[in-house]
Structure to design on (239 residues):
């Protein structure tokens, strides 16, 4: 396995990457540095402990589609082929063939799951990132072959417990989630507005808008406001 790793500026300079918390970005760098020649990492939790990252940071990376996690605990760097070119004479294929066979490359040479057979589920903070895949056994829940009626019912129930917020009505929050934001952030309306406009412009999707606000929107709004403050002439600040 090669000792050197590269990072493409098109990925790490993107708004999607820079809008994440610093802790999530640092975890991404460490995962990529320790990945094998196909971009797979077999000990993400060990790396998290080494650098002081949390499960939430890993969840954000999965949510923002910078990594793809598997039930086995292994993760793969989604844009690995964009970051790195491994010479054939030094290349060593990953040991995680089962996970590799679930993937294919899209037109941009990014990993994606074959035929949408797997779905990534990112839960609330302090819960595990799970990648649903075909399972055997009577007690297993197969998300891929669930009936369409069950899926529609589940989606409708989830939406029914949330309300729409923002000018474009893109932000979905439960009553208790809104109350927590109002309690914890004086600028909660600004946070909702930022996410609402971001979804409108970028088509951003997240399972939990509440989690998105707490884990990256707060930092993004702080950076935006700081940038605006830096643009104000000194003589105005002194008034």
């Amino acid at each position: 396995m090669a000792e050197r790793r590269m990072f493409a500026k098109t990925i790490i300079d993107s708004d999607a990457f820079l809008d994440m918390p610093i802790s999530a970005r640092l975890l991404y760098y460490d995962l990529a540095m320790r990945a094998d020649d196909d971009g797979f990492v077999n000990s993400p939790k060990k790396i998290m402990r080494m650098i002081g990252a949390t499960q939430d940071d890993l969840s954000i990376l999965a949510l923002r589609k910078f990594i793809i996690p598997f039930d086995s605990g292994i993760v793969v760097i989604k844009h690995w082929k964009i970051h790195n070119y491994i010479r054939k004479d030094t290349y060593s294929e990953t040991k995680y063939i089962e996970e590799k066979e679930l993937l294919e490359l899209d037109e941009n040479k990014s990993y994606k799951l074959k035929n949408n057979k797997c779905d990534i589920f990112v839960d609330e903070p302090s819960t595990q990132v799970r990648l649903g895949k075909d399972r055997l056994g009577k007690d297993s829940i197969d998300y891929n072959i669930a009936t369409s009626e069950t899926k529609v019912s589940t989606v409708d129930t989830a939406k029914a417990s949330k309300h729409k917020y923002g000018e474009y009505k893109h932000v979905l929050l439960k009553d208790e989630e809104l109350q927590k934001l109002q309690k914890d952030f004086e600028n909660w309306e600004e946070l909702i507005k930022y996410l609402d406009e971001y979804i409108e412009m970028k088509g951003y999707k997240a399972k939990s808008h509440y989690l998105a606000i707490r884990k990256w929107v707060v930092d993004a709004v702080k950076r935006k406001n700081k940038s605006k403050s830096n643009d104000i002439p000194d003589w105005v600040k002194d008034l």
